[in-house]
């Protein structure tokens, strides 16, 4: 079952309500009843806080150890599951030191090993690269044929159409039943009209970097222009975030020096780190308030949904006077409408400023790569 | 070098010969070094203890890390020297070096144990030492959440510094505002993190603290025994050297 809807429509809240979880923030009305028939497992959107142990192997087997399943059997079950995802190389690693995508796989595997009757996944593909998305997709297809109920929230139904039997859409606090999904239902959706501006000759760079357990980068030698668009792409764990953090000066390289002479502003993947203000009004100021923010000016940025908070952070970044905008996965957890707005804003700003973006969202990369002055593959 | 670099458990360090020893042996070694540094009054013997822990840390964390750590300690050492000068007179200058050395030995030992023993292993260690289960789990969860929180504070501060360079209003009352900004986001983030941590425990079937059986239990091997003997011989060597000097 797919639950779709624009950012802030209440998809994550609905999932947590199903499991009767505590929901931070303001909820004006809760009514109705939800009866769950069978065992459940859930993966929330923010991954880091769901990691419970200090080894991937232990993390995946937590539910089994709580059930007091013998050690050898646990090891065997973990081994079989990680083999299906080609994740064997990671099982002895500390999950906190993995990339966001690898952490997402770990937490999803920890849910899958429970073999639940009902599996609730909040944006499970948001941090995964194409290859890992495909692996998860085919695994979910297998679970579906084994009569597991899978409830997914996703902004892009067209990408998982074969998986969906039932589609619910959330809008204005109402749930609309859209019935079974046909493969072509969403095919027509795209990023719409984007200004006709194309960089005819983008430069492609393949750079060689070395990322260890501690964050460091070496063997990089490149000249970055003072304006334009630089796109960094790569698989999960290839070091995209690490490179952006180094470029912005948040972490230091162990060898060599990477510094941007211009003042930069950084958009992290988890936008909790970005805000401190009491309410949205204080964040955005008094002038040129976007229409979508009108109804939430008195709310704290911390009670907004993941998507709304990311869009608000992007509003702040696009309004800033910084000469360099560094955006880590800007399209993550955003709907098509917002992604379109981001693409347009990026194109506009890249004429005056330097914009550095990292992403593993293939659709977003396809849309934006033709405007890029430089594409780096990690 | 950040505070988190000193406190955080590190995979690489835990895989070295000394780092991969049984937590019980590492605990005995740490307690022994700290006890020696408390009792010893001769600078020469303290230097030997310091060299011993320095060599252990060089094996575990690498020479580069330890030298960077020592270099970063310069301001704290300077403060220690000034406070000693204020408390004691100049003619007791040896006390100054004694306290500086003791401080370096304490922190180095703490770093050695912390960076090579994951909270998982600490939980296992406490359970093996027959600590009350609830207390063991409390220690484990606290360590896990504390490292996350420290990591977040450092990360958040830097991201927010980049953002507020835009805003002249905030730079005028920089210090107070920095504290306010950090506290606001850390508290709200902390609440959400704790709720999600609890949710994750619930959905994975957590039903209270239990005698955890780790997937890869630490076994007392011959290498552990060798390291334990080296640890035990060291105080005897130190005692003999001390006797020789006195005679």
Question: What does this 3D model show about the protein?
Answer:
The complex is a heterodimer of chains A (378) and B (247). Chain A contains eleven helices and twelve strands. Chain A is α/β, with parallel strands linked by helices. The relative contact order of chain A is 0.15. About 8% of the residues of chain A have low confidence. Chain B is an all-alpha fold. The longest helix of chain B is centred in the middle third of the chain and has 32 residues. The relative contact order of chain B is 0.13. Chain B starts with a helix and ends with a helix. Chain B has twelve helices and no strands. Chains A and B meet through strand 2, helix 3, helix 4, helix 5 and strand 9 of A and helix 9 and helix 11 of B.
Helix content of chain B: over 70%
**Overall body shape of chain A:** globular
Percent helix of chain A, as a range, is 25-40%
- Count of discrete alpha- or pi-helical segments spanning 4 or more residues of chain B: 12
- The CATH topology of the largest domain in chain A comes to Rossmann fold
Sheet-strand content of chain A, in percent, reads: 5-15%
CATH class (first level) name of the largest domain in chain A: Alpha Beta
**For the residues shown, what is the average pLDDT of chain B?**
82
Total separate domains of chain B: 2
Structural class computed from helices and strand pairing of chain A:
alpha/beta
Give the structural class of chain B.
mainly alpha
> Rounded to an integer, what's the Rg of chain B over CA atoms?
22 Å
How far apart, in Å, are the first and last alpha carbons of chain B? 44 Å
Classified in CATH, the superfamily of the largest domain in chain A is: P-loop containing nucleotide triphosphate hydrolases
Give the integer mean of the pLDDT values of chain A.
80
């Amino acid at each position: 079952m797919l639950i779709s809807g624009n950012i802030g429509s209440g998809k994550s809240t609905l999932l947590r309500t199903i499991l009767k979880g505590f929901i931070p923030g303001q909820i004006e009305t809760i009514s109705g009843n939800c009866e769950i028939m069978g065992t459940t497992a859930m993966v929330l959107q923010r991954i880091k806080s769901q990691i419970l142990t200090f080894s991937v192997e232990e993390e995946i087997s937590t539910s089994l150890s709580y059930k007091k399943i013998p050690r050898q059997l646990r090891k065997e079950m973990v081994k079989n599951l990680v083999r299906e995802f080609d994740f064997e190389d990671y099982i002895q690693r500390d999950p906190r030191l993995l990339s966001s995508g690898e952490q997402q796989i770990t937490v999803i595997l920890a849910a899958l090993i429970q073999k639940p009757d009902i599996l609730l996944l909040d944006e499970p593909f948001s941090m995964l690269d194409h290859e890992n998305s495909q692996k998860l997709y085919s695994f979910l297809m297998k679970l579906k044929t084994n009569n597991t109920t899978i409830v997914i929230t996703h902004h892009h139904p067209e990408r998982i159409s074969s998986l969906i039997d039932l589609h619910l859409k959330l809008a204005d606090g109402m749930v609309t039943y859209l019935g079974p999904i046909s493969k072509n239902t969403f095919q027509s959706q795209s990023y719409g009209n984007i200004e006709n501006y194309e960089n005819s000759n983008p430069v492609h760079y393949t750079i060689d970097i070395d990322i260890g357990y501690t964050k460091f980068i070496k063997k990089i030698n490149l000249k970055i222009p003072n304006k334009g668009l630089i796109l960094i792409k790569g698989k999960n764990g290839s070091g995209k975030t690490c490179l952006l953090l180094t470029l912005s000066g948040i972490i230091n390289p162990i060898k060599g020096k990477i510094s941007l002479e211009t003042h930069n502003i950084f958009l992290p993947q988890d936008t909790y780190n970005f805000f401190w203000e009491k309410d949205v009004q204080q964040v955005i100021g008094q002038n040129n308030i976007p229409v979508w923010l009108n109804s939430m000016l008195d709310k704290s940025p911390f009670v907004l949904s993941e998507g709304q908070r990311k869009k608000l952070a992007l509003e702040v970044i696009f309004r800033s006077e910084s000469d360099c905008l560094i955006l880590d996965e800007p399209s993550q957890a955003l709907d098509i409408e917002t992604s379109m707005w981001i693409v347009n804003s990026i194109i506009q700003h890249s004429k005056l400023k330097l914009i550095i973006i990292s992403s593993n969202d293939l659709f977003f990369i396809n849309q934006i790569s033709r405007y890029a002055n430089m594409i780096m593959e990690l | 070098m950040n505070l988190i670099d000193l406190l955080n458990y590190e995979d690489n360090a835990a895989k070295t010969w000394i780092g991969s020893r049984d937590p019980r042996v590492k605990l005995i070694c740490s307690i022994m070094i700290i006890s020696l540094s408390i009792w010893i009054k001769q600078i020469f013997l303290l230097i030997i203890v310091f060299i011993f822990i320095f060599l252990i840390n060089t094996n575990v964390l690498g020479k580069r890390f330890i030298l960077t750590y020592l270099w970063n300690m310069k301001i704290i050492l300077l403060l220690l020297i000034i406070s000693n000068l204020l408390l004691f007179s100049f003619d007791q200058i040896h006390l100054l070096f004694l306290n500086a050395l003791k401080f370096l030995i304490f922190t180095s030992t703490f770093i050695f144990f912390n960076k090579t023993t994951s909270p998982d292993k600490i939980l296992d260690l406490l359970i093996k030492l027959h600590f009350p289960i609830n207390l063991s789990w409390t220690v484990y969860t606290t360590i896990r959440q504390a490292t996350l929180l420290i990591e977040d504070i450092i990360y958040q501060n830097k991201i927010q510094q980049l953002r507020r360079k835009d805003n002249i209003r905030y730079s005028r009352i920089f210090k107070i505002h920095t504290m306010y900004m950090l506290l606001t986001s850390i508290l709200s983030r902390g609440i959400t993190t704790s709720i999600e941590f609890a949710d994750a425990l619930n959905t994975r079937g957590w039903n209270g603290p239990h005698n955890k059986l780790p997937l890869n239990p630490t076994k007392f091997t011959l290498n552990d025994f060798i390291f334990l003997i080296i640890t035990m011989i060291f105080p005897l060597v130190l005692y003999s050297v001390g006797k020789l000097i006195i005679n």
